[in-house]
Amino acid sequence: MLKFAVMDGTRPAASWPLRHAHILGPDDVAIPAEIELRSGLIECSKRIGGAAALSVAIDLPRGAPSGADRNLLLRTCLLPERAEPYLLSLELARHQIMLMLNKLEEWGLFDEPADSPLMTRIGAAVATFSAAAVRGGNCGPEGPNAVADQLAREALTLAVQVGEEMALHAAQLTHRRRLSGQLGTATGPISVADAETKTASHAHGGASGVVLAEPPLIGCCINAGVFSAELASAVQQSCDFVTLPMRWLDMEPSEGKYAFAKTDKWIEWCILQAKLPVLGGPVLDVSPRCVPKWLAIFEHDYETLRDMVIEFVKTIVTRYRRTVTTWNVCSGLHAPGGISLSPEQAMDLTKYCIAVVRKLQPQAKVQIEIAQPFGEYTASAKGRSCLPPAIYAELLKQLGLPIDALAIRLQFGSGDPGRAARDILTAMSVLDRFAEIGYPISVSATGWPSGLRGAGEDEPGTWAGPWTPEVQAELVRKLGTALAGKSYIQSIAWHELYDIPVPPPAGISAGEMFAGGLVTGSGQPKPALAAVAALRQALRGKAEKLPG
User: Fold this and answer.
1) pTM reported for the whole predicted model
2) At the topology level of CATH, where does 214-540 sit?
């Protein structure tokens, strides 16, 4: 059993948020465990032996500029079981410091002058952590040391802040290299570190990665349920391309009866008026809100289910192959969803769906989507038989499936699985992990809310205090800049154009999350829309500095 002491000032904490808590084993794969708070200790009973890490939410002060508090899902290093409890704040700080120093090297930031503000703050975070460890990281018979806990929290807060600064600084450096022509398209293996710091012609060895000479395109996913002049104007202000999800529930609400009219209207506008390229899909999205109820009777007849999937994909691609240039073919086949799939069935369906698109539209670009990139679902009862996301992506490569990019959903701030608030350094780290597999990365749906509803609104965590339109816009500037500065990212799409009421009106499918759009339900633009437009303008106009 792993045990972690948690403090509330000078006393053991009487409560602690455990809603998103989970245990990670080797290779960052979530494993089954019972996690409970008892008498100031978080006790983790694992079902698998060996060292493990705890991922748990913790409150931290944000610091400058707003001073608002954060509640972020962070994790410890892999730790062996022992009789004495670990001090949670110290172990969270240990991992964040380790991640910070690893990325400092991977992103080529060790060349920064030792007296630069960034290196000074990194040094302060490391020194504060060292002081905490010396003060009493080992919780003995007397219990945890309150001074050590306070120092560890300070170190953790500093590490989270500095990690954000590192990600933004690395992004600005890569942007300047791209503008000066120092980044080129890679023709062979190149490490992620080289992708961030060197030209492709000087690449050497390492894990497989990609360097893209052009900055990423900026787009938005559109729920086709509503079309208006205001929404069309918002798209033209902020987008290089449009993503139109083609959820099975929307396209074939009744078996054999298709509903194309609303999607047709948006595509017609994109192609004929706005002159914007269209990315179609996900076509096969197996999340519960995307699968029609009538399909449930075929869930345990895989051969019939596969035939129906193939027929659906064939119908959609055939109809839109003259207007859609890129297909997001499958989403979430690796995770629990509205259809139960074994790992073998998930890979089989992926293979067949790719084959259908390649046969019907050979010139189209094809991508496969990772729906929950952090993969904590494998710790749940439904997810234990599913493929971890990184393993699913690696199998795509090993099987040689002909795809052009790996699509990643990166969403925060809702109670849905995998969408708890995380820090920017952690987000960039998980993208680096997928980039090492060797595909260009498309951030196919990223977003967070401008507000929460009802009781328990703090459950998803917070990035900078309560979710507001201003916080939504600030995170667009910060995380958007960090994403845009990644040399392996080819496109970034906001996950929702407009806010959809809960429950949605008749004829409109459910939204990605409450208040997750760039435009309100009444058609008023939010500050986030201007932030997305500013990021796009900086990339297309080749500004010397990105907005973040």
Assistant:
1) 0.91
2) TIM Barrel (3.20.20)
